[in-house]
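Progress against Task 2.4 (sequence-to-structure conversion) is shown through the following example record, which the project officer requested during the mid-term review.
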Amino acid sequence: MDRLILAIRKLSHPVQADYQQVGISSIGLVAVRHGGPLYEKKVFRSQIAGSSVQRRLTGELTWSIIRIMNALQWQRRVLWTLAGVLAVAVSLFVLEGIIRLDARATGNRAAARFGGDRIRGLTTLVDCSQCSLRERDMAVWALGELRDRRASAVLKAHYTAGKCDHAADLCQYELGKAIMKIEGKWNLHASMTFRRATP
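Structure tokens generated for the chain above:
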């Protein structure tokens, strides 16, 4: 009897401690302290298991969201890359069209001045010793852009592969480039190497 009274007195005194789980009985009872006297709280095993499942589902949901966000970021990068490539391709296509139009306009002016079609007018302008070097260099450039093989003989007649002297003769670089374009030899590699090779 005395031991029971002593145990009741101990339980009646508040215990200053944080919330902690003391034990789980076989029937699902939990003895806890929460800044007060020791008491029993019914926490069934189904509730404990439910909390574990909820935490696991929350973790899986979080990882799923992270994976989806990473996939969306990757897709955005791919789309931006494709958009950039497409923009560059369209810009190059438009630029090529503008260059062709300019070359044709130069050919039309030469044809109106010397007679014949564009190619004949431009080749006549290249051979014209009374015309300015600027006009003749422009005709060489236009022939290279139009890529007509009829102009090849005239261009080769003026090409010496020597050093450019823009004050006295046609630009050897433009002549060589026009000849290579007409012969289908002008590409990215040629554009880089030929420029360095031309004095």
